[in-house]
Amino acid sequence: MHMNLIRGAIENTIPISLFNRGLAGKIFEEVKRHGAKVVMKNNTPECVLLSPEEYIRLLDEVNDARLLNTAVRR
Q1: 37-41 vs 13-15, strand pairing mode
Q2: Full 3-state SS string of the chain
Q3: Is the pTM of this model over 0.85?
Q4: Per-domain residue ranges for the chain?
Q5: Strand order in the sheet with 44-49
Q6: What tens digit of pLDDT does each residue of 21-53 get?
Q7: What is the domain class of 2-73 according to CATH?
């Protein structure tokens, strides 16, 4: 289990320096195919890259949870 977590963390992080090397297009394709990536700057998470579809899916999920919460409180 722990090895899977470590492997996932390593596979889902990318150094910000890759953008400076002209690899943005490749990174964006990787995000579209395999999901979110955490961009690291100075060994610290700087941002999370998501595909537009994944972002919309997450927004829909949050909105659904809000609606459910409102309905439950009534």
Answers
A1: parallel
A2: CHHHHHHHHHHCEEECHHHHCCCHHHHHHHHHHHCCEEEEECCEEEEEECCHHHHHHHHHHHHHHHHHHHHHHC
A3: no
A4: 2-73
A5: 13-15, 37-41, 44-49
A6: 999 999 999 999 999 999 999 999 999 999 999
A7: alpha beta
